[in-house]
Amino acid sequence: MPVERPSRGRSRCAHSRLIGRLRLPTIYAWREFAPDGGLVTYGIDRVDQYRNAAAYVDRILRGARPGELPIQQPTKFELVINMKTAKALGIEVPISMQLLADEVIE
Question: For 103, phi and psi rounded to 5 degrees?
Fold first, then answer.
């Protein structure tokens, strides 16, 4: 059941509860799913993306032509691991992966 973007409130929680009942290990692109029971999230750092977007807006407001600005790809990504979910699913997450994570939810 792929999820393209984070849903709000009840629907995200309902999705997480369903996945929990089915005991499916899940990996999401949005960090909002980790505290709700997602096993792993790996995706762009949205705060960094917003900062980059603001820099683009600033350049345009200062006279830069939008068509001449370079296309930028995300460069900063976040890895969040929910160890509580891993334990409930009987999954052992290697310590090396935990050390790489930006956040580990106990």
Answer: -150, 140
Q: Yes or no: say if 41 and 77 are a contact pair by the CB < 8 Å rule.
A: no
Query: Of the candidates 49, 50, 48, 24, which has an alpha carbon nearest to the alpha carbon of residue 38?
Result: 24
Q: Contact, 89 vs 23, CB < 8 A?
A: yes
The 10s digit of each residue's pLDDT in 3-62 is: 545 555 556 667 667 777 778 888 888 888 888 888 999 999 989 999 999 999 999 999
The whole-model pTM stands at: 0.75
Q: Assess contact for 79 and 102: CB atoms under 8 A.
A: yes
Query: Strand, helix or coil at 36?
Result: coil
Contacts of 105 (CB under 8 A, 6+ apart): 34, 35, 80, 81, 82, 83, 84
Cα–Cα distance for residue pair 7/15, rounded to 1 Å:
9
